[in-house]
Amino acid sequence: MRNDIVVCQNIFMKYQSADGETEAIKDISFTVKPKEFVSIIGPSGCGKSTLLSIIAGLIKPTRGKVYINGTDIAENKVNIGYMPQKDSLLPFRTIRENVFLGLEIQGKKTKENMEYGENLLKTYGLGDFMNKYPSQLSGGMRQRAALIRTLVIRPEILLLDEAFSALDYQTRLAVSNDIYSIIKKEGKTAVMVTHDISEAVSMSERIIVLTNRPAEIKSIHKPRFDEEYDVPLKRRNHEAFREHFNKVWRDIDVHI
Ligand code: ADP
Ligand code: MG
Predict the structure, then answer these.
(1) Which ligand 1 atom is at minimum distance from the Cα of 17?
(2) Residue 39 to residue 200: CA distance in whole angstroms
(3) Which tens digits make up the pLDDT trace of 143-179?
(4) Which of 115, 130, 151, 245 has the fewest Cβ atoms surrounding its Cβ within 10 A?
(5) 163 Cα: distance to centroid of ligand 1 (angstroms)
(6) Is the whole model's pTM more than 0.90, yes or no?
């Protein structure tokens, strides 16, 4: 417990609206270790984004607590990197200005942090694109820029909500590999929400499977691969991949 960077304790969430109550989360508890990559997977509409927003401190749970590095998320002192589904870069800002956006919002646009952002852009192949606009970049490059914008604020953890689902299949394979490699190289902890089993199996040390709404934890999987299968694209070709996939698949309630 003392080593855990994320602690979710008995999270419940009920939305109140004009036509009644929607119970989205029911008694979810789990922890994440530093540098771990954890995926949360479950059927559409089960409560995944709700759970991630609660971990990000964007919405307050009806019951339960979230601690990041021992600090209650409700205290608003924790630096979280949140990456939504669409890359959400501002079209009228250059890539460099987009990367500085998070720094501006947090009042941290110092020379040192700006240099850090530029170095990340250079390290990850966007050095020549700093002064271009998002529309001049490929989908994969935009995704990388969005990740760098998230990294530049030096977050304690990265939260990714279906971060690749807007991309076409081929691109998303390459981009998830790319983003995974950057996250590992920068030594970051990541919690990723997805409905894509292959994505979860190829990227995660641990997969938390949620039930249909209200989301409860159905099972937890730890896909293991030989050490040389160190990136998602290689893992997809590992002989154990299908077996891990099927184990997760069996636990997801699909209604057709
Ligand atoms: P997922 O990300 O797994 O698809 P969500 O967390 O977005 O699911 O939503 C879970 C449930 O909560 C859904 O039934 C959704 O309609 C409902 N919900 C989400 N946000 C709100 C809200 N702001 N107000 C009321 N109901 C909501
Ligand atoms: Mg969602």
Answers:
(1) 25
(2) 6
(3) 899 999 999 999 989 999 998 888 888 888 988 998 9
(4) 115
(5) 17
(6) yes
